[in-house]
């Protein structure tokens, strides 16, 4: 595997490979951006390229150094992730201990810290000292969804490498090639920012079930009253799908957006591609402003759910609002 095998993030690849060509490797990098955008994959690939005996701007994938990285047992690559909810000072102290021993090869050691924005204050201060005074040649790669959450003093000592959410059409193409159902893929790529996140959703049996429930309720909302819909929604709580109400609200948001897209002639933007006929036939049942109000209601109910308001009450509020909205 090489840099070319990593999906998207061309700017990040170019920055790192240019540094390797110029032999101007920074002592520390911050890979920041939405979770699932490929930061960890890129970090490991960068380490692999630094270790590679071919000494180019990419990893050959064949030499002993590359194979060690692929097998997860390279002695000069250290990975750190949160111990529970945070990265603790003992983990940074252990890192410093490991990096007190020299590399056996002619390359720097590399450490990758996942969720670096979850370091405790003590851990962050300890890392800061390590960044400023490394005992041996080392390259740090900090991965954070929100780089601004790191100590300003750490931010000032790293080279920032921004990552963007992967393009949904690009992810869709990859996932369909992996033989995931196209209709489910189209939803997943609008709900997760990276391939791994999409795969995690698609591999869950409940995802197809909660989508089907949303479709049933969404269709019934066009012609039925709010109270009748509440009765129909009881299956959510009878079948154990109530654990996934957050996802249900997200799907409703996409459903309402599809209605608006049809009103504006943007059928090519539909998420629920297998429901195109129904959506096209019923998008005019409400005005654009009414569909926008439904989107707002779904977002409001989702917010209440995340603030621990009773899930059944949140769902009933949404269904009442949908069913009783004037046509």
TrEMBL record:
GO biological process: DNA-templated DNA replication
UniProt keyword Nucleotidyltransferase, yes or no: yes
Protein name: DNA polymerase III subunit delta'
Enzyme Commission number: 2.7.7.7
Keywords, ordered alphabetically: DNA replication, DNA-directed DNA polymerase, Nucleotidyltransferase, Transferase
DNA polymerase III delta subunit C-terminal domain boundaries: 243-321
Stored Pfam families: DNA_pol3_delta2 (PF13177), DNApol3-delta_C (PF09115)
Annotated InterPro entries: DNA_pol_HolB, DNA_pol_III_delta_C, DNA_Rep/Repair_Clamp_Loader, P-loop_NTPase
Cellular component annotations (GO), alphabetically ordered: DNA polymerase III complex
Natural source organism: Paenibacillus algicola
Listed GO MF terms: 3'-5' exonuclease activity; DNA binding; DNA-directed DNA polymerase activity
Domain of life per record: Bacteria
Reactions performed catalytically: DNA(n) + a 2'-deoxyribonucleoside 5'-triphosphate = DNA(n+1) + diphosphate
Coiled coil: none
NCBIfam families associated with the record: holB (TIGR00678)
